[in-house]
Amino acid sequence: MVPVPNVTPADVVAAARNPLAFIAARWTPDPRTVQRAALAALVMSVVIVVTGGAVRLTGSGLGCPTWPKCTDDSLTTTSAMGFHGAIEFGNRMLTYVLCAAVGWAIIAARSEKPYRRTLTRLGWAQFWIVMSNAILGGIVVLVGLNPYTVAAHFLLSSALIAVATLMWQRSREGDAEAKPLVGKAVQQLVWFLVTASVLLIAVGTVVTGAGPHAGDSKEVDRIPIDWETVAKLHAVLAWIVVTLTFALWFVLKAVDAPKGPLDRTRELFLILLSQGVIGYVQYFTNLPEALVALHMLGSCLVWIGVLRVLLSLRERPETVADLPGPSVEQSLPTRA
């Protein structure tokens, strides 16, 4: 058995003052551990969006009618709250799992050697977004699922996914200066794709806010606009994103671009086609809950795919320190 090291009072004080530095001084994770931690945070950021969608689709948005408690007298759900209370409270509990995943990513990034400040900051950025969105989620409940706050809640989750995707990418590359793999024209085309994707997601929240799934079985305010009209605008933006993606793939093939951007673009195109099929089927079948949930998952995957295309346009090799060469005396042959 491995003996447990003695913990001195000085160790306790050091751990209390700066626990991350205390852990980093005693643990060096494998690079794959850091990558897995970053990926776990990204996966949980998607899971929390899908489960939040399940809360809305099951009409459980006010299953816990107040916040931060579930009821005025109980921190947790009670039997009187029934199925809806269990669904809403379960989603709240998943926030702690998300915090644990983000915390693991922060600790792993902080403990990696050599220390990578950018990677650690990306972990902390996720933490503060999670905290902000938790507070916003409480406000959503307190204002009775106001559709504008629900939309802001989803957009902030999309921001979390963006930062988590960036951290996952940065954990798999070095810290050297980024080198572009494609020309300016291709980069501009990708930024058009990113902008169109942001608009697509934003308009999607309006469709949700005006559509039939209000999030609770009670009467809930909706955005005063014809949701079918906005859904058609959403479809137009989706076709713009698909067209830009296809054009990007064609241009990348024409300029004989590296394999990375081509692979990411092809993956995005396949995700978009799947998402488009789900979107049209749910529209013509009167928005069944199961398909809407799949569409929300697809929205997250599309956003991740777009960001991966953007990040594939450059590379960051590992930073290698210059090693001192042999001295003149060492280079001279020795006499027998």
Description:
The protein is 69% helix and 1% strand. The protein is an all-alpha fold and 336 residues long. The chain has a two-stranded antiparallel ribbon with strand order 1-2. Helix 3 packs antiparallel against helix 4, helix 5 packs antiparallel against helix 6 and helix 6 packs antiparallel against helix 7. The chain is flat.
Helix-strand topology string? HHHHHHEHHHHEH
Number of continuous helical runs:
11
Main sheet record: 2 strands, antiparallel
Cα Rg? 24 Å
How much beta, percentage-wise? under 5%
Spans of at least 5 consecutive residues with low confidence: 320-336
List the helices and strands and how they pair.
Elements: H1 9-17, H2 19-24, H3 31-57, H4 82-111, H5 117-142, H6 147-171, E1 179-180, H7 184-210, H8 227-254, H9 259-284, H10 289-311, E2 314-315, H11 328-331
Antiparallel strand pairs: 1-2
Helix pairs in contact: 3-4, 3-6, 3-10, 4-5, 5-6, 6-7, 6-10, 7-8, 7-10, 8-9, 9-10
